[in-house]
Inverse folding.
């Protein structure tokens, strides 16, 4: 079956210049995100655009770092899993601590508020505070995670758009060299860091659209 020449040309262009296409993708959805924020569209649209903006570079980075074996770095089964687990643990610990503070504040104020029958108000205020504080701190941790992974990308594949020599295991798409070239090209440390930091900056305001009412 003969491929459409336009499609074939696009695929060939992506294979030869994956970073250029990755940057163009991110700029298009970044501009769409700015429009959505300026026009005050629904928060779910913001999250959808954020996800689409970071999708190529993040997916490629996950593939590259998850395929990186322990022999490349000391005491790591893979770079991605090592730092991602740490990130989730820190976020979970922060959320657990925040919840304990909320519950403690609710208990300490319950006696004074019992006469006015406003016990739920304290919990609501505390949870609203968590909706502000937790996303901000999680975004800071995410930014640190992104920069750390970007640093390892530099060590694994360097700064070139399509590196001639890299430390990515040969088993990654060994039978499909064009796909391997695209994945390694999209897993560029600068592109991943830039799009990842966009999430860190846009995430807390997007999370702020959530509300808890009683």
């Amino acid at each position: 079956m003969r491929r459409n020449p336009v499609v074939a040309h696009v695929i060939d262009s992506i294979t030869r210049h994956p970073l250029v296409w990755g940057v163009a993708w991110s700029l298009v959805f970044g501009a769409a995100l700015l429009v959505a924020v300026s026009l005050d569209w629904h928060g779910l649209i913001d999250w959808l655009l954020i996800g689409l903006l970071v999708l190529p570079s993040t997916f490629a980075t996950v593939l590259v770092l998850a395929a990186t074996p322990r022999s490349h770095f000391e005491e790591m089964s893979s770079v991605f899993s090592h730092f991602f687990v740490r990130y989730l643990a820190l976020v979970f610990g922060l959320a657990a601590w925040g919840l304990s503070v909320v519950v403690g504040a609710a208990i300490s104020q319950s006696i004074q508020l019992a006469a006015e029958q406003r016990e739920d108000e304290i919990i609501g205020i505390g949870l609203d505070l968590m909706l502000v504080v937790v996303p901000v701190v999680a975004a800071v941790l995410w930014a640190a995670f992104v920069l750390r992974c970007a640093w390892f990308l530099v060590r694994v594949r360097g700064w070139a758009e399509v590196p001639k020599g890299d430390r990515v295991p040969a088993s990654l798409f060994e039978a499909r060299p064009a796909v391997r070239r695209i994945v390694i090209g999209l897993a560029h440390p600068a592109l991943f860091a830039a799009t990842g930091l966009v999430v860190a900056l846009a995430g807390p305001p997007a999370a702020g659209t959530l509300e808890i009412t009683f």
